[in-house]
Each structure stands twice: as C-alpha cells, then as structure tokens.
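re: that complex we talked abt at group meeting.

here r the seqs, copy pasted straight from the sheet so there may be weird spacing, ignore it
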Amino acid sequence: MDASQSANTAELQSFLEQEKQKAVLNELVGKLTDVCWEKCITYAPGSKFSSSEVSCLSNCAQRYLDTSTLILRRFQNMQR
Amino acid sequence: MIEEGTETHEREIIAFTSLSRRIHYQVQRKCGILRLTIMDPFGAPPSSLSGNQPSNEHMMGQLKQQLAQAYAEEFFSTVRDKCFTKCVPKPGSSLSGSESSCITRCVERYIEATGIVSRAVFTALPR
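got the structure back, here u go
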C-alpha cells in the first residue's frame, strides 16, 4: 500500500470510528426514549409536556444509566 | 493492495453494523456498494484502479447519507408504533379528527422527549 492509500485508509477508519460512536449514542438515546416514554407518558400526549412529565423523562434516563452501571459492576464482581 | 484495503474497510463496517440490528441491513448493502466502487470504479478495468479511485469524501458522504436514512426510518417506525398505541386504542372505520390531532401532538411530544432524554444522557455521561 502506498502512502496516499494508507492515508486514505486511516482517514476512512477514523471516520468510521466517529460514526460508530454516534451510532452508539443514537441507539442509547432511542432506547431510553422508548423505555421512559412508556414509564412517564401515561395519558394521550397533550399539546405541552407537564413539568412532572419532563422531570420524569429526565430522571428516568439518568436512573436507567445508573442501573446499567450498577448491574455491570455486579456482573464484574461475579466473574472474579 | 486495493483488495486488502477494501477488506479492512469491510471489517470495520461490519463491526460497526453489529451495533444496531435494524440498520444492519442498510449498512451491509452500503458496504457492498462501497466494495463495488472501490473494486470497480466507474466500471474501469482493474489495472487503472488507483487513478480512478473514488474519493474518501464521496464514500463518506454516501455512507452518511445512507445512515441518516436508516436512522430516520428507524425513528419513523418507533414513533408510528408509539403514537398508534397511544392515540388509536380502538381502531374504527376511519381515523377520527381527535385521533388525528392526538397523533400530531404525539409525534411532537415524542421528538421533544427524545431531546429531553438526549440532554439527560449528555449531562450524565462522564466527559
């Protein structure tokens, strides 16, 4: 592989790496919205979110991440 | 040479696609197109490959576009499910006015909810 080709490959690889990170975040946000929508939006949605719905969505997303961390740690401890 | 490079890209792209099952197919297809363009740019004979290689910008642009479409399709399908469940609990012989306006509001709220969750995630993530 000549120099320009390997530069091309490196550029493509870093591009894919970036897109990969975006895909992970995108997937996470999509998943969390799905789960928290089910938990927090109990009635047919109105023309505006109530403040309790907003804080429910936000708390739900953050606690889901906490839960995920907690369970991961638990699993790591089990492996030892 | 070129094939080796192509395989590296392909492996990267396949690892990348395993992240989301639903966009897997689109990117897999994209990968095929990517491979084709690298192997056979503009249908030129293999000997003149390096001169006619499609630019990275071109490939990255195409992949971005394809991904954006895959994300949009996935989002559409989720919102449709959510709003159908919420707004059309008992489907009648046609979509009523109140069901339609519920769907409109539901779509807006789902987009807003995505924004709220997105901000919550970015605040929570270690930077």
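couple things i noticed - Helices of chain A lie at 3-40, 51-79. The first helix of chain A runs from residue 3 to 40.
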